[in-house]
Amino acid sequence: MVLPLTWVLCLGSFFVTLYLIQRHGLLEGGGLVWVICLLLVPTWMTIPLNFVTIDARSLCASAILIGFLRQPYGSQPSKGWYFSDLFVLAIIVGMTITQISVRNITPVAPFDHFREFGLPYIVGRLFLKSASDIEKPLPVFSFCILVISIYAIVEGITKVNPIELLLGRDWYKGADDIASVRFGLKRAYAVQTHPIYFGLTLAMTLPWAIEAAVLAWNGRGPRWWQLVPLFSLAGIFCTGSRAAQLCALATLATTFYFSAPRLRPGLLFLLALGGIGFFLFREQIVTALENYADESADGVSYVKINGEQYEYSGTKHRDLLDIVYKEAIENAGWFGYGTMMSRAPKDFQPDERFNSIDNHYLMFYLQYGYLGWMLFGFLAVSVLWNLLPSFLYGVGPPGRFAAGLFGAIGGCLIAMRGVWFSPDFASVWLFSAGISVSLAHWYSETLTGAGVAYRV
Fold first, then answer.
1. Model confidence at 195, in pLDDT bands (50, 70, 90)?
2. In b/e form, how buried is each residue of 147-166, taking b as 16+ CB within 10 angstroms?
3. pLDDT (tens digit, 9 = 90+) per residue, 347-364?
4. How far, in Å, CA of 156 to CA of 184, rounded?
5. DSSP states of 216-228 as a string?
């Protein structure tokens, strides 16, 4: 039942997107389907075909790219190249070089890397022709965010995922064990494959929810839009993900920083104080995070690594990875061990829990070496650099939106210290990275007098 339905969703997303682009344009037509695929279509509904994965997001993005190439904008969404464009391209090339170096390359591998990294970024790059376009997708974003947030709340309370129950798929079996229950709620993951991925997806769409709520507050949107951020935050709480909660907090903080200029010195002081406190009291903070997640409910747990015993918890898992993969880290070199890491050395009797490398930066380094690790770091910095001027000096909706996006992307970068770059939320991050170019271009136009003036 699942496979035929997956084919219908994948092919339907492609052809419906092409049709709507022809009828209504790239943003009004293609953007509508993209947001639905991004937020409502289950991410586990994929079709692996000879080293290439087919899913609704990728086919929708491909249709948007085809639609743009057939009918380009009269004026491009941005002029020239930005560093973030070059680093996305460089990452795809770097991943391909690694696969060649470990002799695990296939003719379609570059296309799969492009599907994973390039397509979501390109959609974000094309999504907004101008800063005024931010308001156009708010109806579909508000609807989708509200739907999946309510879904997560229901899932957390009832401990049942309706879609998986209907389709006979149970990703987390045994909803009463500590791994899937937190704060007395089942850790909701809705249409994705893990609570952290889903929580980060909700957190990174929070700037859209905030923008809709502000418009509704000013009488320029339906009243129910004002509730969307609240439901989104409730949905994030129901995931039980501390990473997602951190990302949401960063989004709210940067949005508040932009909206309250008089309080900025105080906020910067609190940020500096928090950073210093983290480095001075790291062990105490780790313990507090364990207690917050109730990881010590069943007492102290231990694990053996290379014959030595270590205290174990979900929070300590991330630090212990450095010990488990110590030899692999020392020998990864410039190109790493490839996507599957089949040649990476590790403890000869590893605990199965360490098969999960819950640290994007460690995993990306092991896969693609110094080259991939550095290129991703450059991409992250260039995306934040795109948003920084609009965040600090912009005005009106574009500035506020850039501020929220800066916090969401930056917060997610911090959160990825405890989660790998899963396509579930990676597509949202890369899509947001693409949007950063449009906001950077808008700000450069305002400096030259070509942009549109906004009221705060």
1. very high
2. bbbebbbbbbeebebeebee
3. 656 677 787 888 999 999
4. 9
5. HHTTSS-GGGGGH
Paired strand residues for 185 = 182
Q: Encoding tokens for residue 68?
A: 């743009």
Helices (H), 79-194: 83-101, 109-113, 119-127, 138-158, 162-167
Instruction: Specify the 3-state DSSP secondary structure of 189.
Output: coil
Of the candidates 374, 366, 380, the residue with the CA atom closest to the CA atom of residue 321: 366
Q: ∠ at Cα 242 (238, 245), nearest 5°?
A: 70
Q: Are 134 and 211 in contact (CB under 8 A)?
A: yes
Q: Are 329 and 365 in contact (CB under 8 A)?
A: yes
Number of helical H runs and strand E runs in the chain:
19, 6
Domains in the chain: boundaries: 2-259+378-448
- Is residue 278 exposed (0-12), middle (13-18) or buried (19+ Cβ within 10 Å)? exposed
Give 305's DSSP letter: E
Longest CA span, the chain: 66
DSSP secondary structure code for residue 354 in this structure: G
Q: How far is CA 198 from CA 64, 174, 222, 308, 424, in A?
A: 24, 19, 26, 35, 7
Residue 239 is encoded by which pair of tokens? 């995931």
The first and second tokens of residue 153, run together, are 């709340």
- Burial class of residue 34 (count of CB atoms within 10 Å of its CB; 0-12, 13-18, 19+): buried
Q: What is the pLDDT of residues 235-265, one digit of tens each?
A: 999 998 889 999 999 999 999 988 887 777 7
Calculate ∠ Cα 389-88-249, nearest 5°: 50
22-77 pLDDT, tens digit each:
888 888 888 999 999 999 999 999 988 877 788 999 999 999 999 988 876 554 44
Q: How many CB atoms lie within 10 A of CB 346?
A: 18
pLDDT band at 280 (very low <50, low <70, confident <90, very high): low
Alpha-carbon distances, residue 435 vs 55, 126, 316, 423 (angstroms) = 22, 8, 35, 18
